[in-house]
């Protein structure tokens, strides 16, 4: 059973929370931090619009909520320790300070529906009222994971959708709305909001004892942002997971849920929120899946799509999906309104949303296989069509046969992909040799090399692919330069040697590798030099073999092998050099 990862950069939860809150004042200099009450507030609160917004809750949900303090958003945020509500005293101090700094001030406190928060924030608001402050409380419960019947007395919890309610409230307040009006519009947003989360694992709270995570391979749907239990566990794919989650958000026949109803064409805001530990790449894949399924299953297209980190559960390996129905036309402009808060990311300008997102699914075109290569322009450099293509075929087959050995070597000293990369390239060139384009080129050396360069470029990736593509392209240029005059002439060993030398020189412009660096260069350089000196292919291949042998035990100073420290060095040649030797051996 997997254990929660307990490795952190900061292991003292008290220091961690304080440092995190201080950091909010560095990333947004318009903020002030009061360490006594753990309040982050706008320095200019007194000169802000009449209605001020206060929020807060346990720490561990950053950027919620200190990250949303800023002009056009929250006026202050009160933080508890990790996953624990701040005290009523802390909240009261924040509400009192802001509630009395303007004569007509109104303070709307917007919190999530958690027992501790309800008690402490509720008490603080009552105290503030008793002290003559115009204060009101709005509680957000957007969770649909735990349905009505099971929710029972616990009710709906607040999740990432809360941020949208606060954004709408903040923009309304910035526009000069009254406390009643801000509360009305924010409440309407809360009533048209639904969120569901899913997590791969529980999170470890810094400083706490490490326990086993009994979740194993399962995914918990509806896990709360404090590790609390949700709807249940499933073992499924991303697509199956998103299907279940969207059903919980939208299925009208689910009487236990059906909190919001969206019909095709209706406007809504979608938010895909990272719970803290999902890679940005993976969040992108999740977002694409959500948009695709909304479109295909429900004929729904979000008017705004927010994908990023808004409310976390520490480094939670999970995400949540929020849907906000545009129940009032102003919702979109309030979401679009600028907000000077470091945690808010809605970087796309409203005008660019006007045409809506394109939910059609483009399919990538197939890469050109070797057999579709277009023959390049003819030259006067002749080749023996009876011999050359067959020699090349034999060489490519020799390389393909060597793939398992190259892969074996590369698994020891590299990342294991070299063999397949070479094999893919060789197979594509073989395919090309059987195509009509090759028939046109097989008696024209320059044309053949140019065609092969195209095939290599289109079919080989990775470092080897790039090196071979540069080399073959440069070989074409080198051959061209070595041809004197216009009349047809055979591609002599001298011309090939001159072309290869030029290609080697060219390759040197893009890779710093020298013989001795344990790369393909250790075989390539002796081959080209010996061929140039002796014009004898057999001897040149012999020199390449020797060069390759010399890489055994050589310490890598370039390429991926640098990062691998293994015992296999001594018996293992450089896989790239080995592959080249196998290719060259096929020629003789
Ligand atoms: C908050 O939870 C309580 C139960 O503790 C529930 O009665 C109430 O409806 C919930 N509020 C919201 C806004 O979801």
Automatic annotation (TrEMBL):
Region Disordered: start-end pairs: 346-381
GO cellular component: cytosol
Presence of keyword Membrane: no
Reaction catalyzed: dihydroxyacetone + ATP = dihydroxyacetone phosphate + ADP + H(+); D-glyceraldehyde + ATP = D-glyceraldehyde 3-phosphate + ADP + H(+)
UniProt xrefs under SUPFAM superfamilies: DAK1/DegV-like, DhaL-like
Gene Ontology biological process terms, A to Z: anaerobic glycerol catabolic process
Domain of life of the source: Eukaryota
Domain DhaL: 386-588
Residues that bind substrate: 58-61, 117
Keyword annotations from UniProtKB, A to Z: ATP-binding, Glycerol metabolism, Kinase, Nucleotide-binding, Transferase
Boundaries of every DhaK domain copy: 12-344
Polar residues bias spans: 362-381
Pathway: Polyol metabolism; glycerol fermentation; glycerone phosphate from glycerol (oxidative route): step 2/2
Active site: 226 (tele-hemiaminal-histidine intermediate)
Summary of the function given for this chain in its UniProt record: Catalyzes both the phosphorylation of dihydroxyacetone and of glyceraldehyde.
Family, per entry: Belongs to the dihydroxyacetone kinase (DAK) family.
Name by which UniProt lists this protein: Dihydroxyacetone kinase
Organism, as annotated: Stachybotrys chartarum (strain CBS 109288 / IBT 7711)
């Amino acid at each position: 059973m997997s254990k929660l990862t307990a490795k952190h950069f900061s292991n003292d939860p008290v220091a961690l929370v304080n440092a995190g809150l201080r950091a909010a004042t560095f990333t947004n200099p318009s903020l002030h931090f009061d360490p006594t009450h753990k309040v982050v507030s706008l320095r200019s609160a007194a000169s802000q619009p009449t209605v001020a917004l206060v929020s807060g809750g346990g720490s561990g949900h950053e950027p919620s909520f200190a990250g949303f303090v800023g002009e056009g958003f929250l006026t202050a945020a009160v933080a508890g320790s990790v996953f624990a509500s701040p005290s009523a005293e802390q909240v009261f101090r924040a509400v009192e300070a802001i509630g009395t700094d303007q004569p007509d001030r109104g303070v709307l406190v917007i919190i999530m529906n958690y027992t501790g928060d309800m008690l402490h924030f509720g008490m603080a608001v009552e105290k503030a009222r008793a002290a003559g402050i115009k204060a009101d409380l709005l509680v957000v419960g957007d969770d649909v994971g735990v349905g009505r019947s099971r929710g029972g007395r616990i009710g709906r919890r607040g999740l990432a959708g809360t941020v949208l309610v606060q954004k709408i409230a903040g923009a309304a307040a910035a526009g000069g709305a009254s406390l009643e009006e801000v509360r009305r519009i924010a409440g309407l947003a809360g009533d048209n909001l639904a969120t569901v989360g899913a997590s791969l694992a529980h999170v470890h709270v810094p400083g706490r004892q490490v326990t086993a995570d009994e979740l194993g391979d399962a995914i918990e749907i509806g896990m709360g942002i404090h590790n609390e239990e949700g709807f249940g566990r499933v073992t499924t794919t991303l697509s199956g997971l998103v299907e279940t989650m969207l059903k919980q958000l939208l299925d009208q026949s689910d009487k236990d849920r059906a909190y919001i109803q969206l019909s095709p064409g209706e406007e809504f805001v979608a938010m895909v929120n990272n719970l803290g530990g999902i890679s940005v790449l993976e969040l992108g894949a999740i977002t694409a899946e959500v948009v695709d399924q909304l479109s295909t299953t429900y004929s729904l297209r979000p008017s705004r799509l927010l994908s990023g980190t808004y409310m976390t559960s520490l480094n939670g390996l999970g995400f949540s999906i929020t849907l906000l129905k545009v129940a009032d036309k102003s919702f979109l402009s309030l979401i679009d309104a600028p907000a000077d808060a470091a945690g808010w990311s809605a970087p796309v300008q409203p005008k660019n949303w006007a045409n809506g997102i394109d939910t059609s699914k483009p399919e990538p075109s197939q890469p050109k296989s070797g057999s579709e290569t277009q023959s390049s322009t003819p030259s006067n450099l002749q080749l023996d069509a009876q011999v050359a293509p067959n020699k090349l075929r034999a060489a490519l087959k020799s390389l393909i046969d060597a793939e398992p050995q190259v892969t074996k070597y590369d698994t020891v000293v590299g990342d294991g992909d070299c063999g397949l990369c070479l094999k893919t390239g060789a197979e594509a060139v073989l395919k090309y040799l059987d195509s009509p384009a090759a028939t046109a080129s097989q008696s024209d050396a320059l044309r053949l090399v140019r065609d092969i360069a195209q095939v290599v470029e289109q079919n080989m990736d990775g470092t080897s692919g790039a090196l071979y593509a540069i080399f073959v392209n440069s070989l074409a240029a080198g051959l061209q330069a070595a041809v004197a005059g216009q009349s047809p002439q055979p591609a002599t060993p001298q011309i090939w040697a001159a072309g290869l030398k030029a290609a080697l020189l060219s390759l040197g412009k893009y890779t710093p590798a020298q013989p001795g660096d344990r790369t393909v260069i250790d075989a390539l350089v002796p081959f080209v030099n010996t061929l140039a000196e002796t014009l004898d292919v057999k001897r040149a291949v012999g020199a390449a073999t020797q060069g390759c042998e010399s890489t055994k035990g050589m310490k890598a100073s370039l390429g991926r092998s640098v990062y691998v420290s293994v015992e296999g060095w001594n018996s293992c040649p450089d896989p790239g050099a080995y592959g080249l030797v196998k290719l060259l051996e096929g020629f003789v």
